[in-house]
């Protein structure tokens, strides 16, 4: 609503009153000069968000997912073991299981294609330079369909992870699920509630097709002989061949005296290497908890002591209430436990 100020003019006077204040003007027989009047709006201006910010965010998040799935695809092709910062060897077991294939196609390869498509669409929408004759509305519709399928697949895989791989962890699986849900959420926010409601039927159809496809693939797949998902590992004892140093032996006795515990699994190579650091004599002094004393196969639960300790990877140390994940140097164990080499426990 605009507010205008009017001036009452009188040719017989040398002054004009504007809102009670006089304004002088020069008069000639045929014209007069009046100061310009200003028109102001009572509605405040609102700052608009930068154009294309959501599409730039989508492109960035999808780029991270593309790098992750490219790395996993490389591991799948070369047969290499995945580096798992959390979860120990269980990460490779999940990535090498039958659930990592969809109708024989490696799942990371499918994910790489999906993330690549989303990243490309996000960049094109952000730059407003769409290729192949597709317009903006159709590009957004394709983006919605792809991110919906990714979110539905991630939800299905989280269900598989919690039911078929109980007690194991896969940091790559969780990261991919987080990225997929983020892309889906940003896409919905960019479209707006009204448009999302109009496309609700499409989203439900896409999600249903994705879940049906995955369920059919896993139901019809035959266990491969090389799949770790079907391999049973009977329990076997490991032997330590290295001798124990006086420092290692004293540290092991100290850890035992304060109730420190080392949680591990018989098939865990890092657990074996941790024991080798102590040596044969010192390793026998440790309070070691085997989480799979009856053997291991996919879906086997850890013993109650390991579940209660919330073990997520091997080895895991619990010393004076502090949790140390992964293989530790003896000097670090001595520092955390407060070991003084000059004071030997009785």
Structural account:
This protein has 346 residues and is α+β, with helices and mostly antiparallel strands. The chain has three domains: 41 residues, no CATH class; 178 residues, VKOR domain (de novo design (two linked rop proteins), Up-down Bundle); 92 residues, Glutaredoxin, CATH 3.40.30. It contains twelve helices and ten strands. It has a four-stranded mixed sheet, covered by helices on one side. Strands 1-4 form a two-stranded antiparallel sheet. The longest helix has 29 residues.
State the fourth-level CATH superfamily of the largest domain.
VKOR domain
User: Radius of gyration in whole Å, from Cα?
Assistant: 34 Å
Number of domains: 3
- At the first level of CATH, the class of the largest domain is Mainly Alpha
Task: State the total count of DSSP E strands.
Answer: 10
CATH architecture of the largest domain: Up-down Bundle
**How many helices does DSSP assign?**
12
**Major sheet: arrangement of strands:** 8-7-9-10
Estimate the helix proportion, in percent.
40-55%
């Amino acid at each position: 609503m605009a507010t205008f100020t009017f001036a009452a003019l009188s040719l017989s006077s040398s002054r004009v009153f504007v809102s009670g204040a006089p304004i002088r003007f020069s008069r000639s027989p045929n014209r007069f000069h009046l100061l310009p009047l200003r028109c102001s709006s009572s509605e405040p201006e609102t700052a608009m968000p930068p154009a294309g910010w959501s599409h730039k965010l989508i492109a960035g998040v999808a780029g991270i997912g593309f790098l992750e799935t490219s790395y996993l695809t490389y591991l799948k092709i070369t047969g290499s073991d995945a580096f798992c910062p959390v979860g120990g060897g269980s990460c490779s077991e999940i990535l090498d299981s039958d659930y990592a294939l969809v109708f024989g196609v490696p799942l990371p390869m499918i994910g790489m294609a999906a993330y690549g498509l989303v990243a490309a669409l996000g960049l094109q929408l952000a730059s407003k330079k769409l290729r192949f004759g597709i317009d903006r509305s159709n590009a957004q519709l394709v983006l919605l369909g792809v991110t919906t399928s990714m979110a539905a697949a991630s939800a299905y895989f989280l269900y598989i992870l919690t039911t078929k791989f109980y007690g194991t962890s896969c940091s790559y699986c969780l990261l991919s699920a987080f990225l997929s849900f983020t892309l889906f959420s940003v896409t919905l926010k960019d479209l707006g509630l009204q448009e999302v409601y109009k496309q609700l039927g499409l989203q439900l159809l896409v999600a249903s097709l994705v879940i049906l496809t995955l369920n059919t693939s896993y139901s019809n797949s035959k266990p491969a002989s090389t799949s770790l998902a079907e391999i049973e590992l009977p329990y076997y004892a490991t032997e330590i061949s290295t001798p124990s140093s006086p420092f290692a032996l004293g540290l092991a006795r100290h850890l035992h005296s304060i109730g420190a515990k080392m949680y591990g699994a018989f098939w865990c190579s890092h657990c074996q290497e941790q024991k080798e650091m102590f040596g044969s004599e010192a390793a026998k002094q440790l309070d070691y908890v085997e989480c799979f004393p009856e053997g291991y196969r996919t879906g086997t639960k850890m013993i109650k002591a390991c579940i209660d300790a919330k073990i997520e990877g091997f080895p895991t140390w619990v010393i004076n209430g502090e949790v140390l994940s992964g293989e530790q140097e003896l000097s670090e164990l001595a520092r955390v436990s407060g070991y003084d080499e000059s004071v030997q426990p009785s």
